[in-house]
Recover the amino acids of this structure.
């Protein structure tokens, strides 16, 4: 019964962390004045919503004793390639007037929340030896890292758009130096 209680405790904390991030993404969508930021935060919000629903279902089933050991592996939907997603969102848009300080603050707040989640999962991953719990925590940890990298990339885009485009192999949108 101790393992069952510990799994419930971990899932409860996971839900709490994900709800905080979802709320921050919702707030950022409302206040962000840059379309790229809004689209990115919407994607993050939607992904968190899907995960919350799946984890809540797993949590409720575990409380009732109706969850099989395999279900604890948390089969999340296939994770998008976040860098490709950001590339698609920014394609053809050199800058939409840049980010305002509130946009960058929202990104940095989100990065802190993702960082806290990452530390939580890493700590609990080290502490558990149950294969199902390890698989669950590793999957969620991998997702958190992907979102962290996306947010970090978005911050880079806002802080130095020209350099971001150069590093992402889009040196110029003015076709300078390209012959017909």
């Amino acid at each position: 019964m101790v393992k069952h209680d510990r799994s419930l405790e971990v899932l409860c904390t996971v839900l709490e962390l994900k709800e905080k991030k979802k709320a921050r993404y919702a707030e950022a969508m409302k206040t962000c004045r840059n379309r790229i930021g809004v689209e990115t935060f919407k994607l993050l919000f939607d992904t968190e919503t899907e995960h919350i629903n799946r984890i809540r279902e797993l949590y409720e089933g575990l409380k009732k004793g109706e969850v099989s050991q395999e279900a604890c592996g948390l089969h999340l939907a296939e994770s998008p390639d976040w860098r490709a997603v950001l590339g698609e969102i920014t394609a053809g848009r050199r800058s939409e007037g840049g980010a305002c300080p509130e946009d960058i603050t929202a990104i940095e707040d989100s990065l802190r929340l993702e960082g806290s989640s990452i530390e939580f999962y890493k700590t609990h991953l080290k502490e558990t030896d149950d294969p199902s719990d390890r698989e669950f925590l590793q999957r969620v940890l991998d997702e958190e890292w992907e979102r962290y990298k996306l947010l970090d990339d978005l911050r880079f885009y806002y802080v130095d758009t020209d350099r971001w485009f150069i590093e992402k192999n889009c040196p110029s949108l003015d076709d300078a130096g390209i012959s017909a």
Notes: The radius of gyration is 19 Å. The longest helix spans residues 2-31. Residues 140 and 164 are 28 Å apart (CA to CA).
